[in-house]
Amino acid sequence: MNKNKREKEFYSIDVGDSTFTVLRRYQNLRPIGSGAQGIVCSAYDQNLERNVAIKKLSRPFQNQTHAKRAYRELVLMKCVNHKNIIGLLHVFTPQKTLEDFQDVYLVMELMDANLCQVIQMELDHERLSYLLYQMLCGIKHLHAAGIIHRDLKPSNIVVKSDCTLKILDFGLARTAATGLLMTPYVVTRYYRAPEVILGMGYQANVDIWSVGCILAEMVRHKILFPGRDYIDQWNKVIEQLGTPTQEFLMKLNQSVRTYVENRPRYAGYSFEKLFPDVLFPADSEHNKLKASQARDLLSKMLVIDASKRISVDEALKHPYINVWYDPAEVEAPPPKFTDKQLEEREHTVDEWKDLIYKEVYDWEECTKNGVIRGQPPPLGDWDDTSDDGNGGNDVSSSSVQTVGDSSLDSHTSLGALGCCR
């Protein structure tokens, strides 16, 4: 592309504390969130004639960790294609050469709010179970390609006022092709599975624990395990669920086992005590959904021993969830993820930079007028319920909000959330 022509395609504007240099097709930029991995604004896309979210990655080439995370996020977002996972609409950089390359912008669907707002609402069983169903559909889609999200939390799950839900943020996702141990500092503390806290090998059910914590929070309207640090996090878990069995303790390495065995022993509480009927909505006459079913699902998700925790497939068949079961959603084709050795790859910052630069320009070659070739047009009418285009300010890899643990500054009223389906 002619250098002068390319320069004319971009303009710069201050968005919050950052300067965005974006294509002129994106207008009316407004900040909607920030976090460790990026700054997100809403914008109007004149080409697609819809509001979108634009994320500017924060210092993607600061070090190898940041660079690998940026590459992982980009390649994973390019390969996933499911209605319950945020859609990547465009990728661009204003820089014209690899030598100048320093900024990466991801353009995504714009949603109304993240789950932090929904947690404060009094939902009926239909909405509660439908939101969970959509989470599980999105997770199953990722797991089908061996992708474990690893950082599911309310601020990484976004919704629209019609009860549509999508999962965000793949900067911490990991492909399950290797047996690498997970650091205890990966998943946001409150939603960390016990095997993560204790430094055990990871498996897909780490995401199910997070969903259980989110469901508990939606029912109780407060965080279930609000640990101050990872040691306190473990104590919060065993105080409520009880000290795990000797069978589980024998799976720990010696030093961790010694620590766990030296902690006070707790009997834990029954799930009827932790989640009494009064916390739940009234039983549903329409779908026959009951508090007892939701509580049973919680008891199967919040299991300390991951090998005995309910799987995604089993959860989708649970009576509290399967009223929504649609094979087209549950059994959608898996992501076409080809880089199975991504987690084992190590490169210098410059090598990661080169890989990301190629991904960005490969995207440009595969697109026309901002629409991915071969990808269907957006589903239905785009529902923008406010001038700001969204509510929330906890962002990350996707549309409205994600990475940090900042509080929401809502500009959008979700009302009572629209009807399911």
From TrEMBL:
GO cellular component labels: cytoplasm
Q: Which residues form the Protein kinase domain?
A: 26-321
For activity, the cofactor(s) needed are: Mg(2+)
Q: According to the UniProt entry, what is the EC number of this protein?
A: 2.7.11.24
* Statement: the UniProt record of this protein carries the keyword Nucleotide-binding: yes
Q: Which reaction does it catalyse?
A: L-seryl-[protein] + ATP = O-phospho-L-seryl-[protein] + ADP + H(+); L-threonyl-[protein] + ATP = O-phospho-L-threonyl-[protein] + ADP + H(+)
InterPro entries, per this entry? Kinase-like_dom_sf, MAP_kinase_CS, MAPK, MAPK_JNK, Prot_kinase_dom, Ser/Thr_kinase_AS
Which compartments does it reside in?
Cytoplasm
Protein's GO biological process: rhythmic process
- Keyword Cytoplasm annotated: no
Annotated region Disordered: the residues are 372-411
Q: What class of enzyme is it?
A: transferase
Single GO molecular-function term? ATP binding
Coarsely, its chief localization is: cytoplasm
Q: Which UniProt keywords apply?
A: ATP-binding, Biological rhythms, Kinase, Magnesium, Nucleotide-binding, Phosphoprotein, Serine/threonine-protein kinase, Transferase
Which one Pfam family would you cite for this protein? Pkinase
| SMART domains, A to Z | S_TKc
Out of the domains of life, which is the source?
Eukaryota
Low complexity bias: where?
393-407
Which family would the database say this protein is a member of? Belongs to the protein kinase superfamily. CMGC Ser/Thr protein kinase family. MAP kinase subfamily.
Q: What does this protein do?
A: Responds to activation by environmental stress and pro-inflammatory cytokines by phosphorylating a number of transcription factors, and thus regulates transcriptional activity.
Q: State what protein this is by name.
A: Stress-activated protein kinase JNK
Q: Which organism is it from?
A: Gadus morhua (Atlantic cod)
